[in-house]
Design goal:
Chain lengths: 437, 409
């Protein structure tokens, strides 16, 4: 029976080729536009570390001026000072913890022909690698002792390893960075994080860094400040140390806390810490410390761009118009078939038979529209790539889930669109139609 | 002219017999109008944002970064030699070392106030550190006071936190800091940086934007007379008209070979930097325009489709009307008027939805509120789209021969 309906559907679709093409195109356009924007939003809001995003917390401390909040209405700054970074790390009150900063420096490859190049550097503690599940190709992260001893060790990215060591296992070898010799302890595998959640202060969709280096190298080698530096008060005194000891925020802090209990304890610790600092004349504002897990932090930092959201809502409205269009056209089409329906009813087809027959026809149009929509979504994503440039590279891939949901959305929406016209068509009284014949 | 002649009554009664089709078209028109009007509003806002001028000679300028390394690197002699080398290269109009590039997105800002002390009103401003060539290289005009003299320019080592004695500020900043006096009179006034440190306003320039294109106080800018002794420094080079692309590789090569203790990177034209900074806005404009156009076409084709169908269905009645004396014009008018009635419902609903969506956008994404005239303009456009779309089918209807009425199907 189904194949018979399918045959009828194709016949009917072929009978009004322009009208059918119009419906398929409308559904295709609507689905294409929606899938394009949904994909971008879906990837922007993706959970980059699903299995432990609930256990990683970003630390915010309100060290700002007593006269104004760091951010309206009463938000603490999005980064912490060097003083807090080092104090919290020494306190070691969380299961795992890392303070972080970003910087950059020149790498001088040893080969005669290789030119020196600039590399992005992340300064972190040894816990950084297990906390964020950094994938290693060779070797491992450095140890806690390396942190405290201020050893000259680094972990490098796969790309850096290719460039400097030709892709060989470089663990134990020496690499010259910012004019100093470092020992390579680990080489990371490809590490794509979308968004790069561990530091979104300079842009959530930056790549992971080329070099990872112990945090205290900042002080040891007087490395430059990467990212944003914000101060509510100027440093007291001249020089690098004065800057480090100032109230300027340029550091990020993450802790890993395994359950609510640990979280509560850590919050208590933070509050106590701030109260101690208050006694020393710092932290003039009321207690306002925050622990946000990964997805909460992405929400606070508004990682999903406003433009992307606006586009998604516009494209949903677009889909709505396309569906209304299809309903109207189907209605017209099925009304035009009134006499045929009357005839079929008169020769014995039940209302249910007719209903199913016409739903099959609508579903065919829906599937065709869905496939067209998928093609258009590919085009749309390519378009987005060319409009926004390389930084959206990781935001425009269609995966299987998205493809399947595109077809499903097309099918469901076209069947919904076909429901009312079909119902109307089936309620035609056979006699009235046969009379005029 | 009586309504009788326009046949509003019969059209309306005929419409009521096929409500659903008409309602669908009306909703389509309403939603289309909502999207079109809001899109045009966003597009115009973005376009105005992109068109703002940075105040510098963008077309002829480019910049690059030099980063020194190794213990033998001497920032002072490097900067001196580099600037001499660049300025003496044929095709270069002028060149400076500068700490940040307008419209690039990265820079340095400080707060300024007119009275020393804590808790005073301050104005934030972007800082460009330049020497006495700054005005010429950036293509600014000193509209009051004067440019820095060579003697004003000092070396700024890394980690130093005090500021030079003189400063040049933009007209807009002068007016923000001293709202009660003319900008010409701001020359010679003292302003304070870091709450207590005085700087004397030596000159006022017409216009130069801060690096952050999304910043509200985009023209709050100061120039300070300094050359930095950092490991990483930027050179901003203004070429003779038409020479930019030719001298870029020459300068890069000359710098790279003159000193091996550094790398030259990030060489880029200011034009490209502008494109990058506004890329999201340009993209939004293109995406919304495309959506808008396709959507209008889809709605238009929908109207054509439905109208064609209703013409086909009413062939016999149309033939009868023609046989009874209705002119071709009357038939066309019938369908045009029918569409006009549907569109009217649509655009009225559309007006409500348009304002509603705009309010949502204002609340959620803090966009600006729509100017009122966008709504009637949008209504007019959608009316027109409807009329144009229905004209074809109406014309076809008018060509139905009266003889059709005499035939049985």
């Amino acid at each position: 029976m189904f194949t018979y309906y399918l045959r009828l559907a194709f016949k009917s679709i072929k009978r009004n080729p322009i009208l059918s093409a119009l419906m398929i195109t409308a559904i295709g356009l609507g689905i294409g536009a929606s899938m394009t924007t949904v994909t971008v939003n879906y990837l922007m809001s993706a959970n980059p570390i699903p299995h432990k995003s609930e256990q990683l917390f970003y630390v915010q401390l309100d060290s700002w001026s007593q006269f104004e909040p760091a951010r309206e209405p009463n938000e603490p700054p999005d980064q912490i000072t060097w003083t807090e970074a080092t104090n919290l790390m020494q306190a070691k009150q969380a299961f795992r913890q890392t303070a972080m900063a970003s910087t950059g420096g020149v790498i001088e490859p040893t080969g005669q022909d290789d030119k020196p190049f600039m590399a992005s550097i992340r300064l972190a503690f040894s816990d950084f690698f297990p906390m964020f599940d950094a994938p290693f190709l060779f070797g491992n992260g450095w140890s806690e002792n390396n942190d405290t001893n201020r050893d000259y060790v680094v972990v490098i990215s796969k790309a850096t390893n290719e460039r400097v060591f030709g892709g060989e296992n470089s663990v134990g070898r020496t690499i010259r960075i910012v004019g100093e010799n470092f020992r390579v302890v680990g080489v990371l595998d490809d590490w794509v994080l979308v968004p790069r959640f561990y530091d979104v202060t300079t842009g959530a969709f930056d790549e992971t860094e080329e070099v990872f280096m112990p945090f205290y190298m900042k002080q040891e080698l007087e490395l430059s400040n990467g990212g944003n530096t914000n101060c509510w008060k100027s440093p007291e005194g001249e020089g690098f140390i004065a800057f480090l000891q100032s109230e300027c925020v340029n550091y990020q802090m993450w802790v890993e806390l395994r359950d609510q209990n640990e979280k509560d304890q850590y919050m208590d610790f933070l509050n106590n810490y701030v109260n101690e600092q208050k006694a020393l004349g710092r932290f003039a504002r009321p207690l306002n410390n925050r622990l946000s897990n990964v997805m909460e932090w992405m929400e606070i930092e508004e990682v999903v761009a406003d433009d992307a959201q606006i586009m998604m809502w516009v494209s949903f409205m677009f889909l709505l118009v396309c569906l209304l269009n299809t309903i109207g056209l189907l209605l017209a089409k099925f009304t035009g078939k009134a006499s045929e329906i009357g005839l079929r009813r008169a020769v014995g087809a039940s209302k249910t038979d007719l209903f199913i027959q016409h739903l099959v026809e609508t579903a065919c149009i829906g599937v065709a529209g869905g496939i067209l929509g998928l093609g258009l979504a590919f085009l749309g994503l390519e378009g987005i790539k060319s409009l926004y440039g390389e930084f959206v590279q990781n935001l425009v891939g269609l995966d299987f889930t998205m493809m399947a949901s595109a077809i499903l959305l097309a099918l469901v929406s076209s069947i919904l669109a076909g429901m009312y016209p079909t119902w109307r068509a089936c309620n035609i009284a056979p006699a009235s139609q046969l009379k005029s014949q | 002219m009586s309504s009788n002649q326009w046949e509003i009554g019969p059209i309306f009664r005929a419409l009521m017999r096929n409500k659903v089709g008409a309602i669908l078209i009306a909703i389509q028109i309403a939603v289309t109008m909502t999207i079109v009007v809001n899109s045009i509003f966003i597009i115009l806002e973005r376009a105005t944002k992109i068109e703002r001028e940075s105040g510098i000679d963008e077309i002829n300028s480019f910049y690059l970064t030099t980063t020194g390394f190794g213990s033998n690197f001497d920032p002072k002699s490097t900067a001196t030699n580099d600037l001499e080398l660049i300025r003496s290269t044929a095709g270069v109009l002028d060149a400076i070392q500068i700490n940040a590039i307008p419209v690039s997105g990265g820079g340095w800002s400080m707060s300024f106030q007119t009275e020393p002390g804590e808790e005073k009103e301050t104005e934030g401003a972007a800082i460009y550190m330049v020497d006495e060539h700054g005005i010429n290289a950036l293509d600014l005009e000193v509209i009051a006071g004067e440019n820095f003299a060579a003697g004003d320019v000092r070396w700024r080592p890394a980690g130093v936190r005090d500021w030079p004695d003189n400063v040049i500020i933009t007209k807009v900043l002068a007016e923000s800091l001293f709202p009660d006096i003319g900008y010409q009179d701001v020359v010679g006034k003292t302003i304070y940086i870091q709450q207590n440190e005085p700087m004397i306003v030596k000159g006022i320039v017409d216009k130069i934007q801060a690096p952050w294109v999304g910043w509200d106080d985009l023209e709050h800018t100061v120039l300070t007379p300094e050359i930095t002794e950092f490991e990483s420094n930027r050179y901003y080079i203004r070429a003779q008209p038409g020479q930019r692309d030719a001298i870029m590789p020459i300068i890069e090569e000359a710098l790279a070979s003159s000193n091996k203790q550094r790398i030259i990177r990030g060489m880029r034209t200011v034009q490209e930097t502008r494109e990058r900074s506004y890329r999201a806005d340009t993209a939004m404009i293109k995406i919304l325009s495309t959506t808008m156009i396709i959507l209008t076409i889809v709605t238009g084709l929908g109207i054509v489709g439905l109208a064609s169908f209703s013409v086909n269905r009413r062939k016999k009645q149309i033939g009868t009307r023609r046989a009874l004396g209705a002119s071709q014009q009357a038939i066309v008018r019938y369908f045009m008027l029918e569409n006009f009635l549907i569109s009217t419902v649509g655009v009225l609903l559309g007006a409500v939805l348009t304002v509603g969506l705009n309010m949502l956008l204002v609340n959620i994404f803090s966009l600006n509120a729509l100017d009122w005239y966008f709504v009637p303009a949008g209504m007019l456009v959608l009316w027109l789209v409807g009329q144009i779309a229905v004209f074809g089918p109406a014309k076809k209807a008018a060509n139905i021969p009266p003889a059709l009425a005499t035939r049985t199907v």
